[in-house]
Amino acid sequence: MGSCNSDLLDLSASDGNLELLEFNQYELNYDVKVNSDVSSIEVTATADDENATITIDGKEGTNKLIDLFIGDTVIKVEVTAEDGETKKTYTITVEREVPPLSEDANLIDLTVSEGELTPAFAADDDEYIVEVEDDITSIEVSAIAADDENATIKIDQI
User: Fold this and answer.
1) What CA–CA distance (Å, rounded) separates 30 from 89?
2) Residue 76 has pLDDT above 80, yes or no
3) Are 10 and 46 in contact (CB under 8 A)?
4) Is the model more confident about 56 or about 145?
5) Kind of pairing between the strands at 87-96 and 29-34
6) What is the pLDDT of residue 145?
7) pLDDT tens-digit series, residues 86-119
């Protein structure tokens, strides 16, 4: 019968620039906070017994790149002792901050599929008229936000 040692010797989580947790093999739960621009972390685990097996988020291995959600991402590191029965689970909860809201509600472009905007598009204007021929029953309106990454555009039909 093999060893029943299911401890980790080391556990680390890194965003590529910074080590995110201080490991203690008797501590099973870790809370980590990262900025909104951190989209993934690498988790690396080393078993105290070289014959133990490690799985990180269900995948066997000693390291894994984990994609982070906005809010909490829970990462499970399970160590199975050589005996195959003794197990210990370490949990890392990573809280990824919500990105800051944009204060830029401007457009950089506004186009229509039929007719012309009057007046011509300008970022400072927020009202336009479009005149079309009598046989036109619909038009497509396209807009591009100045802050394209964080903006939502809603086009109302009048």
Assistant:
1) 12
2) yes
3) yes
4) 56
5) parallel
6) 87
7) 999 999 999 999 887 777 778 899 999 998 899 9
Task: Give the pair of three-digit tokens for residue 8.
Answer: 């980790």
| Type of residue found at 103 | E
Joined together, the tokens standing for residue 23 give: 């490991």
Tokens of 114: 């039929």
Mind listing the pLDDT tens digit for each residue in 11-69?
999 986 667 788 987 899 999 999 998 999 999 999 999 999 999 999 999 999 999 99
Other C-beta atoms lying within 10 Å of the C-beta of residue 143: 14
3-state secondary structure string across the chain: CCCCCCCEEEEEEECCCCECCCCCCCCCEEEEEECCCCCEEEEEEEECCCCCEEEECCEECCEEEEECCCEEEEEEEEEECCCCCCEEEEEEEEEECCCCCCCCCCEEEEEECCCEEECCCCCCCCCCEEECCCCCCCCCEEEEECCCCCCCCCCCCC
